[in-house]
Amino acid sequence: MSEYVIPKPPIVAVPVAGGGRFPVRRIYCIGRNYAAHAVEMGHDPDREAPFFFQKNPDNLDPSGEFPYPPHSSDVHHEVELIVALKSGGTNIATTEALDHVWGYAVSLDMTRRDRQAEAKKLGRPWEIGKAFERSVPVGPLQPATEVGHLAEGRIELKVNGDLRQEGDLNQMIWKVPEMISYLSEYFELAAGDIIMSGTPSGVAAVEKGDTMEAIIEGLGSLTVKVV
């Protein structure tokens, strides 16, 4: 007899370039981590304490398709660098933070912007606008041992060939080591955790039939069709 009283949920995993899969424990997402994006969302770009929200591991989707979600008429793209951890802990020093990174990937933080705006107005959590099914299209993870640690490099997103978002990883307000260190003060990080590191300016709506191409220098591209 099984020790579980219902069928055990499957392990969520992201494909790895060259073979294998990376099992995912948690997803932490930093908000407004590029100054120009903070401005376009109506906020002061000055450096302030970072804030995070979470998505669910099973929101990750490597299929190359993004089903337009229900209960929204304003769904936005946000191209982001994913940071995948191989180990963790608490109170991690910034000087040691990159020792915990397994690799990196190109991803999209798809957002029901109208539902997020309603939640903000009412002072409610963002999950209804952020943590819906298949809301994180993701490319294959690439090991830091092969691509290095990405502190700079072009990040952009095109829709149907037209450039929508562009920036550089060095424009992050909070850099990757700082994000890891800050999170570890409030959570016990562990192997399998993923950090979505924010998006540059240019977020905008997509429609069914659109093709999104997310590109991060050093990691290649991720092509996703809105269906």
UniProtKB/TrEMBL annotation:
Keyword Metal-binding belongs to the record: yes
Xref: SUPFAM superfamilies: FAH
InterPro entries given in the database record: Fumarylacetoacetase-like_C (IPR011234), Fumarylacetoacetase_C_sf (IPR036663)
Coiled coil regions, renumbered to chain: none
Species of the source: Oricola cellulosilytica
Hydrolase recorded as keyword: yes
Taxon lineage: Bacteria, Pseudomonadati, Pseudomonadota, Alphaproteobacteria, Hyphomicrobiales
Fumarylacetoacetase-like C-terminal domain residues: 27-227
GO molecular function: acetylpyruvate hydrolase activity; metal ion binding
Protein name: FAA hydrolase family protein
Keywords, sorted A to Z: Hydrolase, Metal-binding
Domain of life: Bacteria
